[in-house]
Amino acid sequence: MRTFVAIYHGATARDAKLVSVSTDPDLAAAVAKRLLAVEEKQGEKTSPVSTPINHAIRQGRLRALRLIAMRSGVSH
Question: Helices H, strands E: what count in the chain?
Answer without folding.
Answer: 2, 2
